[in-house]
Amino acid sequence: MTLDRRFALTPEALTMMDTIARTGSFAAAARELGKVPSALTYSVRQLEDALDVLLFDRSSRQARLTAAGTELLNEGRRLLAEMDAVANRVHRVSTGWETQLTIAADAVVSRQTLFELCEAFYALRPPELHDGAGPGTRLRLRTEVLAGTTEALMLGSADLAIGLPADTLAPAGIEIRPLGEAPFVYVVAPHHPLANAEEPLTDAVMKQHRSIAVADSAQRMSPITVNIQPGQDVLTVSSMQAKLEAQMIGLGVGFLPEVLVREHVAAGRLVVKQVARQRMTAPLSYGWRSAAAPQPQKAPQGLALQWWLQQLESPTTRSALLLRGGPCPPSEK
């Protein structure tokens, strides 16, 4: 009786193919698998019948794969690796480590520091996982702008949000803590008309020139607009990096995070202008979905989220996220 091809491609059959190809002969593979060569030959013929292909060249005295056999071997190895990965992730979930953790970070948050935290997370070797591997939680980073960061957290698209507006109200199931203040400076290109204008710049003077704005990434919540005056010409771009580039070539002017423009100001690619209004800082917070948040079929607060929240308790880490203060010392993480 011929096996259905869906039932023929078992982990045992794929392992058998891998062993034969690796050892180079049916006899050697049979010894490694603890079988007699005739039983191994019979299993291969069953697999060939189920798939209706020839997997090994019978004219050779060695176990030489056909093109179909090579394809099955390559795909089989990939499938075996994925099976192992799934088994490991299931085990990690049982120990409290989430399968995936989504972090939404506002565009003003330092990516350098965020990636350093990711690196430290991947380097973890939790004692409860006896295989010596990392937690296995897949991190997903989202870049949001203004109300988009809040929306990602409120609608459940993110488990942790870094860079929320400080006045964000926390509904049931959401916890919010202060992150710090991000300083902004008003910058223009060296060849822009405002580069040599008398300081401090008044709102009336700034209004006469095109402003570069980053579009709020919120899709459902009301978008937030900051530092745009009524009647002012505006060029809206999709990212903070695009805003920076637009201002460096003189397409417009506006406020940018001080840490983002620091090296460009030092290199003369941008000029900081003093403005009449008070010094611009953006007080920010971070928030997460707590145990009370409705998350069907998901642990209320997994170990990966707990680790990230522990890092955010450190003033050094919070400062680095807003001021890009270099690598965070391991002791501060």
Protein model, in words:
The protein is α/β, with parallel strands linked by helices. The chain folds into 3 domains: 5-94, Winged helix-like DNA-binding domain superfamily/Winged helix DNA-binding domain (Arc Repressor Mutant, subunit A); 100-180 and 283-332, D-Maltodextrin-Binding Protein, domain 2; 183-280, D-Maltodextrin-Binding Protein, domain 2. It has helices at residues 5-8, 11-23, 26-33, 37-51, 67-94, 111-122, 147-154, 203-207, 240-248, 258-266, 303-312, 315-323; strands at residues 56-57, 64-65, 100-106, 138-144, 160-165, 174-188, 211-214, 234-237, 254-257, 271-273, 281-289. Strands 3, 4, 5, 6, 9, 10 and 11 form a 7-stranded mixed β-sheet that branches. Strands 1-2 form a two-stranded antiparallel sheet. Helix 2 packs across helix 5 (67-94) and helix 3 (26-33) crosses helix 4. It is elongated, with a radius of gyration of 29 Å. The termini are far apart. It comes from Scleromatobacter humisilvae. This is LysR family transcriptional regulator. One of its GO terms (molecular function) is DNA-binding transcription factor activity. Residues 9-66 form the HTH lysR-type domain. Belongs to the LysR transcriptional regulatory family.
List the main descriptive attributes of the protein structure presented here:
19% strand, 3 domains, D-Maltodextrin-Binding Protein, domain 2, 11 strands, 7-stranded mixed β-sheet, two-stranded antiparallel sheet, Arc Repressor Mutant, subunit A, alpha/beta, 12 helices, 333 residues
Q: What is the approximate shape?
A: elongated
Oligomer: single chain
The ordered H/E elements are HHHHEEHEHEHEEHEEHEHEEHH
Radius of gyration from the alpha-carbon trace, in angstroms: 29 Å
Helix content: 25-40%
How many DSSP-defined strands?
Answer: 11
Q: Biggest sheet: strands, sense, closure? A: 7 strands, mixed
Rounded average pLDDT: 84
The fold-level CATH name of the largest domain is D-Maltodextrin-Binding Protein, domain 2
CATH superfamily of the largest domain: Periplasmic binding protein-like II
